[in-house]
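Page 47, continued from p. 46.
Same chain as before, 186 aa.
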Amino acid sequence: MTQPATDKRATHKRAINNRAARKTAIASLFGLALCTSGAMADMSEGFDLRGGAYLDGDDPLVGIGYEMPIGPRLSIVPNAEYVFVDPGDMYTVNVDSKYSLNPSAANPMWVGAGLGLIHRSYFNDSNDAAFNLLWGIDFDSYGDTMTPFISTKAAFSDDSEFAVNFGVKFGGRSNATQASRQARNP
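Result:
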């Protein structure tokens, strides 16, 4: 039995209103995080904000992460991203690791791997587990509290994705950037 046209329109209108409310909430949280980043700049760990795109659908994204060093070259980075897809919603929640390849370089490169959850919704919600492979470079800005970076992510899941991010890490420098400075200035 099919739904009457008015029920379909009402369902579609509710879905559009829900998506708009979610996108507004995500944008507000991102703005709040950006405003409070200065207050968090004295932390020994690093807090990052990123923007970029998932290249498969040219969908823009915003994200937030928190880098926690666990060794001289290794860090754990829990992070989340909201992807502006139309129609629908998509967000990821990840726990990634970063390993510095060349900590004595002026702009150290790193690789990483991790696990993630990709949530997609458009009338039907779906959650996919993902295995992430990462590559990035931190740019030594010679400041005390900010480190710009570029990163790429391949998320392997039922519907694999590839993303490019540009961002800034606030607070403590990445392990790679700290090691780079120590190697140049013993």
